[in-house]
Specification:
heterodimer; A: alpha/beta; seven-stranded parallel sheet; four-stranded antiparallel sheet; 21% strand; B: mainly beta; two-stranded antiparallel sheet; 14 strands
């Protein structure tokens, strides 16, 4: 038996020695504009005579081979290999490489794209959250417009899995206590960091609705997956990268998120576009914030199959039919450190829609609401909001006909009092 | 017998720039193959090399030490494989292929096997067929289902259920045997290890080696991938 103990000791020693090993994550402090993403083909999973694990990709057999190819590519093109992450739903491994000073990332992408060892190469894009500075002066509870208390009699989003791909969420906030079932950090290896944007988005989507809550989420019984893919640069600026977003999306897909909220915008991105396509193909509803400063609202709002959401306002009536308009101004929500704040921007309008999708999917799980035409809109003169913006009650009523929302503004009084 | 290695070598020599070559070295406390120890409960070392072509074709070779029938020394066993895998959808793949198991000293145990399988994200199911399983001149089927459940970035649960069914022979009281295993595995960078409890429902005389009489055993393995 001596050899058994020797072997076990060896195994444990190696495991503990290796436990400090962690694959480098995308560093938020690094300049993404100096990085490129290189995709290497991931062979389909198959039999191997020495296979001892079930499943396929997780074991990452053959990863060493791709890592060597990536190292060769980096050496051949004068780059520094930084990190990698599997994207099994796309059939690729994604490698992050640093472009040296004096060379442009676009030039490197063009040159590497001709190399047949790479499936494809793209720039590392930067995405930003759609938030603008605000004050607490114009408090306008959104509950008044959507009649949440009435809608919650029909649905609370119970059990619907909503992935919040954003900056860090403060899951210890009193209004979010027990609401977040998953916290994953795809930005760096530091502990999960609560940040303002992600915490506000999470509060709008799924803050609890019991008596002690200061704000009520649209879907207070949805299952929240807090996937940190963005980081705060300053109080009013939150950034994300192609790589961190891709890792979070891959996680959301693998963990069967039914709703994926992307309150952010950036340039067209092939890697992210393919992941969004996979998510949609698997039945997820993807919600993206519309950035009016970018063509088509920026990615992902501009991507086919993504619900593009802008702030409801006077322009909603004449806006494009494919854009949804939801409350996005002076929205009270949760803030890190057991605080509350008013937030504005299409990020938070998107969060309303993500929560709304969760309500619909509870009562009608196969209804994805991906077609903007399936959403009811308010007529002109409505007390529930600007013409052309979402008529939440009517939308939910299509899935749950017994939903009965009063058009009176009475709820605004109580919401204001609770704030 | 010579066809499979020939195909393997052809693939290896004509690999395109897309082909990926990987290798793995491992040690295991007991080489348990389909529920049966092929080392009489002793440890073994294994070397494996694989080639994956971008077209979906793959091939591999594995060399390991066996100790059958209480042999006083280890005898190398070589398993060659070749096959094709194709992703049907994201997360679902089918495969088909063949293997050839070669024992350098006791060549009458050599046998070929064909297989087909379906692989999901966290499971796979395969069916194998051999006309001369372990050189016993009997047709044999082996079906298996493997599954894994990630616990975190490094750790995962493992499970396996398999059943071998063979045409009857005079000396065997049973023509089918079930085996199963459950355990945990971890992967840290290129190193991985697993610990499993492997069991079977009865002694298995379908194999060339005499059964050790133990129907359950702990198996610890350590591997390094290149």
């Amino acid at each position: 038996m001596r050899w058994r103990f020797a072997m076990l000791s060896l195994v444990l020693a190696i495991v503990f020695a290796a436990s400090g090993h962690a694959r480098a994550a995308a560093q938020p402090s690094a300049d993404p504009s100096r990085q490129v993403l290189v995709m290497l083909h991931l062979p389909a999973a198959h039999y191997r005579p020495g296979e001892s694990y079930g499943g396929n990709y997780a074991d990452r057999q053959g990863h060493g081979a791709r890592r060597r190819v990536a190292a060769e590519l980096a050496r051949d093109f004068g780059l520094t290999l930084l990190s990698d992450w599997p994207m099994p739903d796309l059939g690729v491994d994604c490698y992050v490489m640093q472009v040296p000073d004096g060379r442009g990332a676009a030039e490197v992408v063009q040159a590497m794209s001709k190399d047949k060892r790479a499936e494809w190469v793209q720039a590392m894009n930067t995405f930003h959250a759609l938030e603008r500075p605000d004050s607490l002066l114009a408090l306008q509870p959104s509950m008044r417009l959507w009649h949440l208390d009435e809608m919650h009699k029909a649905s609370t989003g119970r059990g619907v899995r909503v992935a919040i791909v954003d900056s860090g969420v403060d899951a210890t906030h009193p209004d979010l206590a027990g609401r977040v079932v998953v916290e994953e950090n795809f930005v760096d290896s530091s502990p999960f960091a609560p940040e303002a944007h992600g915490t506000a988005v999470a509060g709008i989507i799924g803050a609890r609705a019991d008596d002690g809550a200061r704000v009520v989420g649209i879907a207070p019984q949805a299952v929240l997956l807090a996937l940190r893919a963005c980081w705060e640069v300053s109080a009013n600026e939150t950034l994300c990268s192609s790589f961190s977003l891709a890792r979070a999306l891959q996680y959301a897909i693998s963990n069967n998120a039914q709703v994926i909220n992307l309150s952010l915008a950036g340039p067209d991105d092939r890697l992210l576009a393919r992941l969004v396509d996979v998510a949609i193909a698997r039945g997820s509803t993807v919600v993206g914030a519309f950035d009016e400063r970018m063509d088509g609202g920026g990615f992902p709002a501009s991507h086919a199959g993504v619900l593009a959401v802008a702030e409801a306002g006077p322009g909603a009536a004449g806006g494009p039919a494919k854009i949804l308009f939801a409350p996005g101004e002076d929205v009270p929500s949760t803030a890190p450190g057991a605080r509350w704040n008013l937030v504005s921007g299409s990020s938070f309008a998107a969060a309303h829609v993500a929560g709304m999708v969760a309500l619909v999917r509870e009562v009608s799980p196969t209804t994805t609401m991906r077609d903007a035409a399936s959403w009811a809109r308010l007529p002109s003169g409505s007390a529930d909001g600007p013409a052309g913006s979402i008529d939440a009650c009517a939308t939910l009523r299509r899935a749950a006909p017994t939903t009965n929302c009063s058009p009176s503004p009475r709820i605004g009084q109580s919401a204001r009092a609770s704030w | 017998m010579c066809r499979i290695p020939f195909v393997f070598l052809t693939l290896a020599l004509t690999q395109s720039s897309f082909a990926q070559v990987s290798a793995q070295a491992s040690i295991v406390s007991d080489y348990v193959y389909r529920g049966v120890s092929l080392t009489q409960g002793r440890p073994s070392a294994t070397l494996e090399a694989d080639i994956d072509d971008a077209s979906g074709w793959f091939a591999g070779a594995l060399v390991t030490g066996t100790r059958l029938y209480s042999e006083p020394h280890y005898e190398p066993e070589v398993i060659l494989d070749v096959g094709y895998a194709h992703a049907l959808t994201t997360g679902l793949t089918w495969e088909a292929g063949a293997t050839y198991s070669y024992f350098s000293d006791f060549t009458f145990w050599n046998y070929a096997e064909v297989f087909a399988g379906v692989l999901g994200e966290r499971w796979n199911a395969r069916l194998y067929y051999a006309t001369d399983y372990f050189g016993r001149d009997r047709r044999s089927w082996y079906g298996e289902i493997n599954f894994t459940q990630p616990l975190d970035e490094h750790w995962r649960l493992l499970g396996h259920v398999g059943a071998v069914r063979s045409s009857k022979a005079a000396l065997d009281s049973h023509s089918s045997v079930l085996d199963a295993s459950v355990g945990v595995a971890a992967k840290f960078g290129s190193a991985s290890f697993a610990i499993k409890r492997s069991v079977m429902n009865r002694d298995n005389y379908l194999y060339a080696p005499a059964a050790s009489g133990e129907r359950g055993t702990w198996v610890v393995s350590l591997a390094y991938s290149y």
